[in-house]
């Protein structure tokens, strides 16, 4: 699988978010909502409000292949997504028991489950069906978590998430 690589830095929490560059890379291959970077509610508006979330199949496991929890990493980090019990499909493609990956960077609480996952520097969509990426982090400690979502970027019910891991950039 080809990694989406982008040398933009992830802003530290509390600093002004400069989203356009990062989102632009994450949006390569985006098939569902090409204007979401500028209009974060576009996908929400397109999704019927009453549509029930898709039930998470039993026995699904979402996890990091790399990096490992607690790992000391360089500023450039290759992140590989692991998924068992479901498949990966691009955003906008509705196939049973599939979803696409989202990487949550320094996110404390999961986003609201009743609307599409936001698209910003802390919630990165892999709508092309990517299973790995390369990110650049600032020195310090960061958390990473994976969140699988459906064709409309909605979390499953219950949410399919990985353990939250911590990495330290020296
Ligand atoms: Cu998405």
What does this structure look like?
7% of the residues lie in helices and 37% in strands. The chain is mainly beta. It has a single domain, classed as Immunoglobulin-like, CATH 2.60.40.10. The strands form two sheets. Strands 3, 5, 6, 7, 9, 10 and 11 form a seven-stranded mixed β-sheet that branches. The chain has a four-stranded mixed β-sheet with strand order 1-8-4-2, covered by helices on one side. The longest helix is centred in the first third of the chain and has 7 residues, at 20-26. The protein binds copper (II) ion. Copper (II) ion binds next to strand 6. It comes from Dokdonella koreensis DS-123. Residues 79-170 form the DUF4399 domain. This is ATPase.
């Amino acid at each position: 699988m080809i990694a989406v690589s982008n040398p933009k830095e992830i802003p530290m929490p509390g600093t002004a978010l400069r989203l356009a560059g990062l989102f632009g890379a994450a949006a390569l291959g985006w098939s569902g909502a090409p204007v979401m970077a500028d209009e974060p509610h576009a996908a929400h508006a397109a999704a019927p409000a009453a549509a029930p979330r898709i039930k998470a199949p039993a026995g699904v496991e979402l996890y990091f292949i790399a990096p490992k929890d607690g790992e000391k990493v360089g500023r450039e980090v290759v992140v590989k997504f692991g998924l068992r019990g479901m498949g990966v499909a691009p955003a906008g493609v509705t196939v049973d028991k599939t979803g696409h990956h989202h990487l949550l960077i320094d996110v404390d609480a999961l986003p609201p489950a009743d609307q599409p996952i936001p698209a910003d520097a802390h919630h990165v969509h892999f709508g092309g069906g990517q299973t790995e990426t390369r990110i650049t982090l600032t020195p310090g400690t960061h958390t990473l978590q994976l969140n699988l979502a459906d064709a409309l970027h909605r979390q499953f019910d219950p949410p399919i998430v990985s353990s939250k891991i911590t990495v330290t950039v020296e």
